Amino acid sequence: MHSIEALSESERVERYERLARKALTVYALEDAGLRYLGPGTNVVFRVQTDDGRWALRICHPDRDHDTLMRELLWLVAINRDTSLSAPEPVIMRSGELLRSVSMPGISGFHPCMLFRWVKGRPADELTVDHLRAVGRMTATLHQHAGSFRWPEELSIKQSPLPALAEALSALRVRGRIRGEDLAALQAVIPATLLAIRILGDGRDVAGVIHGDLQQGNLIYHAGEARAIDFERTHWNHYAYDLAVTLGELSSRKDFAQLRDSYLDGYAAVRSLPCHPDEHLPTFEALHALTRILSLLRTERLQNGEGSGIVRAAAAKVRRLLESE
After folding, report:
1. Cα dist. 304→56, 72, 184, 298, 315 in Å?
2. CATH superfamily of this structure's domain 128-323
């Protein structure tokens, strides 16, 4: 059997649509209208009926179920305990939150989950009002995370740094990274360890985070910022979320105003989790390292295509660490 990735996009979508309808039987939505939402880490369909709209996410068979459950359970709690509009997992008639589905023509068992649709649109041009709303929303997430706990069997509180260091070593062994770039990326590890020692790991500075609050995962409705795609939810320092959001705005001419508005919005809800000038560059560098290692695991970048991305990431890391 040929890999599904070898098929045309229309053929892939047709097969995934059949799998989606099978997954939707447990919600009695197998006859709903489906709209494919484009390529990405997961396959996502918008599900539409006269009674409502949902998003069906089809994950890769290799996805860890415990990781998915941690995401789903936090989203259930956010929707229960806060006024935030976040994707709400739909509970199946069996009481489960996810189901692994297989289908002839698609290899493996794919974890599938259904979310209530979050109303909103991305911003065409970010303003200080958008960033202030994002700051308030992020602070509310962190405020909730301070009291949230996963069930004991799913609990995890560990630094991602050992895994990142191991991945860097693997790149070096395979000769996929220049020595000077490796040195720049490796410098992120001790810099982050130092920041963590200074900040500690109390509930006021660390807990469950979204992990990917970049603008592609933020939508806006009626003056409110709303986060979507909680796939990278994990335990980390709250500063990481701040660094992700602000990091991609640093080239804007009005960055200082956007940054101040974001931090003001955050501080209106809870105290800042770190000194921005001292610690955000380190966590932005950590995010750059995390993203580059994630990208280099994809098939698209397996055959030398990733060298330019590595060099760009290393250059960014150098700038960030030198700015501290």
Report:
1. 34, 36, 20, 12, 18
2. Aminoglycoside phosphotransferase (APH), C-terminal lobe (3.90.1200.10)
